[in-house]
Amino acid sequence: MKMIKIALSALLLIATTSCQPETKNTNTTQVVTQEAVKEVIADPVDLQNYETAYFASGCFWCVEAIFESVKGVAEVYSGYSGGPEKNPTYEQVAYGRTRHAEAVEVYYDPEVISFTQLVQVFFGSHDPTSLNRQGPDRGAQYRSIAFYKNEEEKKIITDYIELLESKEVYGRPIVTQVKEFETFYKAEPYHQDYEKRNPNNSYIRNVSIPRLNRFKENFKSYLKEEAH
């Protein structure tokens, strides 16, 4: 009986710590959470003055929070990229009905943080040896992808992968896709700044915040003052 209780508790934890929708009908959740979006202040800066970078490394709630803590980053949006389908929805992507991955769009100041450093943040904040999985989230929609917009960015990514593997940093082969960037579809409004606005969500408490804290511990020199 004790073993059964332990097993049920483990299953409950997994069920409540998933980035996927709890039900196939997310309309109720969307209506409720979109009300909170009204409290989010509009972009305080002109983002046209910043460079952009794109990454996918698991649930975009986690990834967005990590990059937003990095100095030189002005804004980060959660969204979908890496697949051919146009205008995908969260439900479609989260249930693996597209070839997109949950991704982020990072607006950054290259005079403060370089693309090379953002690549270091990317590889240092997730497990790039885990195929189609990050933490409790499984499926190709959670795969690791480093997108590049030109040959220079591609070389930075591939050179860094070679460096990590030559030093056997992870002890296993890196399975991150190095993929040319095509299109980024911004996720629904209620996903933006999700961690900040939903601190009591079980997934945020058990998965996202611990992941963010591990990153902060290892990349202290990369953090904004308010992120320390």
Automatic annotation (TrEMBL):
Transmembrane segments: none annotated. InterPro entries: Met_Sox_Rdtase_MsrA_dom, Met_Sox_Rdtase_MsrA_sf. Residues 1-21 form the signal peptide. Keywords: Oxidoreductase, Signal. The keyword Repeat does not apply. GO terms for molecular function: L-methionine:thioredoxin-disulfide S-oxidoreductase activity; peptide-methionine (S)-S-oxide reductase activity. Its EC number is 1.8.4.11. Residues 52-203 form the Peptide methionine sulphoxide reductase MsrA domain. It comes from the Bacteria. The active site is at C59. It catalyses: [thioredoxin]-disulfide + L-methionine + H2O = L-methionine (S)-S-oxide + [thioredoxin]-dithiol; L-methionyl-[protein] + [thioredoxin]-disulfide + H2O = L-methionyl-(S)-S-oxide-[protein] + [thioredoxin]-dithiol. Pfam families: PMSR. Belongs to the MsrA Met sulfoxide reductase family. Has an important function as a repair enzyme for proteins that have been inactivated by oxidation. Catalyzes the reversible oxidation-reduction of methionine sulfoxide in proteins to methionine. This is Peptide methionine sulfoxide reductase MsrA. It comes from Flagellimonas flava. The gene is msrA.
